[in-house]
Amino acid sequence: MSLINEILEFNKNFVENKEYETFNTTRFPSKRIAVLSCMDTRLTELLPAALNFKNGDIKIITNAGAMITHPYGSVMRSMLVAIYELGVREIMVIGHYGCGMKNLDGCELIRKMRAHNIPKENIEAVLADGVDIHKWLDGFEDSEKSVMETVNVIKNHPLIPAEVEVFGFLIDPHTGKLDRLE
Ligand SMILES: [Zn+2]
């Protein structure tokens, strides 16, 4: 069932045929922008195309819901590296309409884990570790509010310099239309 062998075969040909040559760029984003967006498959190619982002233009960080669940988690860490190491000066938080994280219930996800034979003790061990697992897995109720909360976490973060500007948006996953949030 796995596609891994197919992927490896494709990759071998890709490298042999030097198909990588059209992708050559540097690790520094030429537009000095970092985007935090959702991992939704509909956005993978649509978002860069709709915003005229070409290969090498931006840093893009994606996760489920374009959310920052912790001010000292991996998203903020990536932002800090993008700013201090890679020259980013503007941050765009781009949520989207019809996001799967809207109204996602942490309890429901835990029920699915249980159905996949994750023992109750494992869930309890996470709680014992001081992680509020339900809250951690919960999505959001209001897309606009969630994006603006994330914008504010970045703006008010003690390690983000004042000259970095942060903006919030929602994108339509069908048309690519971008709405700016205030
Ligand atoms: Zn989404």
TrEMBL record:
Keywords: Hydrolase, Metal-binding, Zinc. InterPro entries: Carbonic_anhydrase, Carbonic_anhydrase_sf. It is an enzyme of class 3 (hydrolase). Pfam families: Pro_CA. Belongs to the beta-class carbonic anhydrase family. Its cofactor is Zn(2+). This is Carbon disulfide hydrolase. Zn(2+) binds at C38, H96, C99. The keyword Plastid does not apply. The keyword Transport does not apply. Binds 1 zinc ion per subunit. The lineage of its organism: Archaea, Methanobacteriati, Methanobacteriota, Stenosarchaea group, Methanomicrobia. GO terms for molecular function: carbonate dehydratase activity; hydrolase activity; zinc ion binding. It comes from Methanimicrococcus hongohii. Its EC number is 3.13.1.5.
